[in-house]
Design brief:
14 helices, 61% helix, actin filament binding, myosin, nucleotide-binding, actin-binding, mainly alpha, Alpha-Beta Plaits, ATP-binding
Length: 369
């Protein structure tokens, strides 16, 4: 059996004779013994007979149902009166319809004193109750809020017979604009009201403005003229605003064009300056590189000064390499004269050896002869 939160399942021993319903105060058990008879709202036969036998004309005029026949069941639904639940349902529907047709207001009750005495007012206790219940904060919110309001349609219905439909059409049948024109014509302070989507709102304490708005008779003759003046003023302000906005955008466009041209010239000038600076930096870097190379060469040449054997060893090492690095080729240029001197010395040595060998062979040949 499914158990719902509002209809809990009773104890299995009592399930055949009762049911339970959870109300706001707690769970209530209902016994089903004579439940249908108790729910019946039929008038008893003795009461009907007593009313029929009464000498009062009022009681005799009341409609009384005829006594029930023995053939019909005692709990038939066709009997007059219905049931208690049916009557309760009808009464609740009537109450709901009555509440929907009214405007409900909330009333907060405050105890004037703890002793519940008449004519005694305890100020501290009342203030404490107002603060604890949030009434002070609610009043503060209402003070800065917009509690008084009225529909635009109501304002239009109030003033339309006065100004005429032709004047209302000049506002393009715009209820909001028409209401705004009326507020301006009545010289309402701009901080005393606000215009919503469908309603006009007034601040707290400005209900007199609402009364002035709804009291049309005082300014009935002047209202059409004032509305026309407001409409002309609004159109004039709109035209002036459009012209000012157009002039502003025209000035902004010209300024943007000038800035764009200036930006182009500035970019070109910066490119020229950057190119010159780059060339200057490249020249400085090239000169610095050349100076560094010359300094290094001078240091190497100074370190080998007066050391011909070391020069020869260095030259032999360079000649022994299959490929000489570009940074070391200047050594070959520097050691070139030494290489030529070594070549000449080698040739001279060969020539001397050949000459000595020839002279020795000739001397040996003469000795043999």
């Amino acid at each position: 059996m499914t158990c719902f939160c509002s209809f809990p399942t009773p104890h299995p021993k009592e399930a055949h004779e009762m049911f339970c319903i959870v109300h706001y105060a707690g769970m209530v058990k209902y016994h089903i013994d004579s439940f249908i008879d108790k729910n019946n709202n039929i008038i008893s036969a003795q009461f009907e007979e007593l009313m029929a036998a009464s000498k009062s004309t009022i009681l005799q005029a009341l409609p009384v149902s005829p006594p029930t026949s023995s053939s019909s069941p005692p709990n038939s639904n066709n009997q007059r009166g219905g049931s208690v639940t049916q009557m309760f349902s009808v009464q609740m529907r009537g109450l709901a319809s009555e509440l929907e047709g009214t405007r409900c207001n909330f009333i907060r009750c405050i105890k004037p004193n703890a002793d519940m005495e008449v004519g005694k007012f305890d100020r501290a206790s009342v203030v404490d109750q107002l603060r604890c219940s949030g009434t002070v904060q609610a009043c503060s919110v209402l003070r800065v809020g917009l509690p008084t309001r009225i529909l635009y349609a109501e304002v239009v219905d109030t003033y339309l017979p006065v100004v005429g439909h032709a004047l209302y059409e000049k506002f393009n049948c715009n209820e909001r604009l028409f209401t705004q024109a009326i507020c301006a014509a009545l010289a309402f302070p701009t901080d005393a009201y606000r215009l919503g989507d469908t309603r006009l709102f007034f601040r707290t304490g400005k209900i007199d403005l609402l009364d002035k708005l709804l009291n049309v008779t005082k300014m009935e003759d002047q209202m059409p003229t004032m509305l026309v003046n407001y409409l002309v003023k609004r159109r004039w302000l709109s035209a002036v605003t459009k012209v000012m906005v157009f002039k502003m955008w025209e000035r902004v466009f010209a300024e943007v064009r000038f800035r764009r041209s200036a930006l182009t010239l500035q970019c070109w000038w910066r490119q020229v300056q950057a190119r010159k600076e780059r060339q200057s930096l490249a020249t400085q870097a090239r000169v610095a590189s050349m100076l560094a190379k010359w300094t290094k060469k001078l240091q190497v040449m100074k370190s080998f000064e007066g050391k011909p054997d070391d020069k020869i060893d260095l030259l032999n090492k360079l000649l022994a390499k299959p490929v000489v690095a570009p940074s070391q080729k200047w050594l070959l240029t520097w050691l070139g004269p030494l290489q030529r001197a070594m070549y000449v010395q080698k040739l001279c040595r060969k020539a001397c050896v050949a000459y000595l060998a020839k002279r020795g062979f000739i001397w040996l040949l003469q000795q043999v002869k």
